[in-house]
Design a protein that fits this description.
It is built from 11 helices and 10 strands. By secondary structure, it is of the alpha+beta class. The chain folds into 2 domains: about 80 residues, TATA-Binding Protein, CATH 3.30.310; about 160 residues, Ribonuclease H-like superfamily/Ribonuclease H (Nucleotidyltransferase, domain 5), CATH 3.30.420. The strands form 2 sheets. The protein has a 5-stranded antiparallel β-sheet with strand order 1-5-4-3-2, with helices on one face. Strands 8-7-6-9-10 form a 5-stranded mixed β-sheet, with helices on both faces.
Length: about 300
């Protein structure tokens, strides 16, 4: 059995009431403390950094990350073991997991992936290092995606920007569009496998996805929950969705000769302006999600 490769970054959210304990413990562990903007504190030592943001977001990075999370952060602060023992938080009966990538990204497609995991496949996925894609590098995601596809039944719905904009104009609502993508993925995997047990990461009121399933006349036992990536099947789906999105964005960047960043930041605005200068406004409209306010900012920038 392959030894799992642990990532060198860990992201979580904690109650800020735990900040004092965390800070005291880190000082006792000889971390150097600083306070960059928008943080409660940042702590560093050789091989490890730990930053707590004002929002409660906690980011741990470095080659000592895995050991720090498993032996200190989980037992003392998080009081959960989803990082070091992900199977403890998975439903180990055969089921389908669904997740998406690209919904917060101005450029590129929206990707919804589903993975069907059998009883004997959970341990296989854990052994190769499957976990929430947000804790993994793009390179690791790419390797894991290949292994997941070899191991499990899966289906991916990739909605390229032109189709995305067409569907969005019809739905006038991102959650309804997402629900359509989830329902379509579920429909394909139910047809492939006969499995009717489905877990998704909840992104809206429960009725939104349930309505999309009813429109397809699908009857499944659907579980919607927050932080569903703790489930192994959903984590595997998150990896396939992210890999599909990142691969598509890289291909698009190569075709244009312009690096298209993820997200919707000022860097994205600069890239959008570069696309207009090189290829024209119509090309920008072909490769972006037009309902983002980012588009107005780019067009405004181009008119200055």
């Amino acid at each position: 059995m392959t030894t799992p490769q642990t990532p060198n970054i860990f992201v979580s959210t904690i109650d800020l009431q735990l900040a004092d304990k965390l800070l005291t413990d880190l000082k006792a562990k000889d971390f150097e403390i600083a306070k960059p903007p928008y943080t409660v504190f940042s702590a560093k030592k050789k091989g490890l950094s730990c930053t707590l943001y004002d929002s409660g977001k906690l980011v741990v990075q470095g080659k000592e990350c895995a050991e720090f999370v498993e032996f200190y952060l989980e037992p003392e602060i998080l009081k959960s073991f989803t990082f070091s023992h992900p199977l403890a938080h998975s439903d180990l009966t055969p089921h389908i997991g669904i997740d998406e990538s690209g919904k917060g990204d101005f450029f590129g497609p929206l990707c919804v992936a589903g993975v069907y995991v059998k009883e004997n496949q959970f341990a296989i996925l854990q052994s190769i290092g499957v976990r929430d894609s947000k804790t993994l590098s793009d390179a690791k995601i790419r390797k894991l995606a290949t292994e997941i596809k070899k191991t499990c039944h899966y289906h991916i719905v990739k909605i390229n920007p032109q189709k995305y904009n067409e569907i969005y104009d019809s739905f006038k609502n991102l959650n309804r569009l997402l629900a359509w993508g989830h329902a379509t993925t579920i429909e394909q995997l139910v047809e492939q496998t006969g499995c009717q047990q489905v877990i998704i990461d909840q992104f809206a009121d429960e009725w939104v996805v349930e309505t999309a399933l009813k429109r397809k006349k699908l009857t499944v036992k659907l579980t919607q929950r927050h932080r569903a990536e703790e489930d192994m099947a959903v984590a595997a789906a998150s990896i396939l969705a992210r890999d599909t999105f990142v691969t598509a964005l890289e291909k698009l960047s190569e075709e244009l000769g312009i690096v298209l960043p993820k997200g919707a930041s000022q860097l994205v605005q600069k890239a959008g302006a570069a696309v207009i200068r090189k290829w024209g406004k119509d090309k920008l409209l072909e490769i972006c999600k037009k309902h983002f306010k980012t588009l107005d900012a780019i067009l405004g920038r181009g008119q200055q």
